[in-house]
Amino acid sequence: MSRLEYMENFVAVVDSGSITAAADKLELTIAAVSKRLKILETDLGVRLLTRNTRQLALTEAGQYYYQHCREILEEVSRVDQHLLAMQGTLSGSLRINMPMTYGKVRLSKLLIRFLQQYPDIHLATHLDDAYTDAASGDYDVVIRIGVLDDSRLIARKLENARLLPVAAPVYLERNGIPQTPANLGKHQCLHYTNASLREGWTFHDQEGRAHNVQVSGPLCANNGEVLKQAAVAGLGIALLPDFELANELKSGELVQILNDYSAQTISVYAVYPSRQFLPEKTRALVEFLIQEVQKP
């Protein structure tokens, strides 16, 4: 056996928390995993793990060796994946988390094309609008919309999206068309649950002056599709990203208001944990999304 195989065995034991779990992961017998661990410790002349009937614990030497083994194994994997990528044969699993509407509207077709380009990749997608900790390790890539505040992460911008104030013609006929942001205070407004009402909605006029207005209304939701359908039904005015309004604006179900003012622009990022050795398959996915999303 090579030293890399012994390293892989050791790292699997630490990551799994037990020799039994590592044996399942490596598809080996418990005796084989235990024997490899003993051989490695004998070769190194140092104890890496302390063992008792309940748990395994890294020694100081074991902690040092584990960290460097992880780096070496990740680098080997990265080199292998890079060579495979050069031949168009990336493989393995990728996990991506993305907001519900953005994932459906902007990314679903792109992810299908990515899989067509790399048929040996298995992609697990999770769509929801709850906050996801990209540093948790649960996902390889997390798509975030808005402000980023975690310095532990690497963020690559996919695109910018404009927020547009929209309403259904039936609502405007019944309640009038607001001419300034201040008028919104007298209207029924539909807003995001995860946006603070105290912050209100902010617009800028053509001279660049900011106009902030506090809004209220009959519905708040953590999903833009829900707010959009409520706006189409005439329940009120919504402030939504342009990427989810194209069909409704084209059909006339919704119309943009306050055309002399602009709301804020929000950025969309692909976020992943800051690691020295990024797997080539993850890099390939991020670069693919950036390239495809930014196409004219």
From TrEMBL:
The record's keywords, sorted A to Z, are: DNA-binding, Transcription, Transcription regulation
Residues making up the signal peptide according to the UniProt record: none
InterPro entries xref list = LysR-type_TF_proteobact-type (IPR058163), LysR_HTH_N (IPR000847), LysR_subst-bd (IPR005119), WH-like_DNA-bd_sf (IPR036388), WH_DNA-bd_sf (IPR036390)
Recorded hits in SUPFAM superfamilies, A to Z, give: Periplasmic binding protein-like II, Winged helix' DNA-binding domain
Q: Where is the HTH lysR-type domain?
A: 1-59
Q: Does the keyword DNA-binding belong to this entry? A: yes
The UniProt similarity line reads: Belongs to the LysR transcriptional regulatory family.
Name of the protein in question? Transcriptional regulator, LysR family
Q: Which organism is it from?
A: Thiothrix nivea (strain ATCC 35100 / DSM 5205 / JP2)
